[in-house]
Design goal:
The chain is an alpha/beta fold and about 240 residues long. It has helices at about 15-20, 30-45, 60-65, 70-95, 115-125, 140-150, 185-190, 200-205, 220-225; strands at about 10-15, 45-50, 100-105, 110-115, 130, 155-160, 165-170, 180, 185, 210-215, 235. Helix 6 packs parallel to helix 8.
Amino acid sequence: MARPTYRRMMLKLSGEALAGPDGTGINPDVIRNLAGQVRELQELGVEIAIVNGGGNIFRGVAASAKGMDRASADYMGMMATVINALALQDALEKEGLQTRVLSAIAMQEIAEPYIRRRAMRHLEKGRVVIFAAGTGNPYFTTDMAACLRAMEIHADVICKATKVDGVYSADPVRDPSARLYRTLTYDRVLADDLKVMDSTAVALCKENNLPIIVFNMNVDGNMKRVAIGEDVGTLIGREG
């Protein structure tokens, strides 16, 4: 069996990725496939943490742009991430994995409160930890939550699962000539505004030298390939 390159991985999922071709809601086939790939990671001995977005259900920024109070809209977006986290938990447990949902906003009937040391103990015991409700604060994205939690739990890498093969020079759907980058530096991502994650999250990863891998979650086995260090997607770090 191949040995993993990364001992502890932070998996960042967008809400839109969970919707699949439907565009909104939670696609059962997508979430089932995702759970199967996470099971493969755990079989390798990788400790897995997940931060998911909520854009498939509600986007706070979009609602704010239409006149809703930004803080209220962001809190609604955080609730959407909790719905996705519970759906992920259900799919993962159907794969035989032990999971814990830790929420940055107290809702003790359905999730544990986020406590850093508790999260680390869960990971050490082989449980998949799903961080819900972002950072618990408005004006912060789930990208920022993923970077922050990754730093707190001493993750080795952030793996951003997308619907494309990595980071391109332009939108590959609209521009067939768009070039796929295999490696990038944090500075290049920030200077060219490549929209990998929000700029604050990328800057935080740069400050703490935390690598980011962007890959296509819809290709079977990709998550395992990332874990064992194969050349999949785009690697973002200090050298590129």
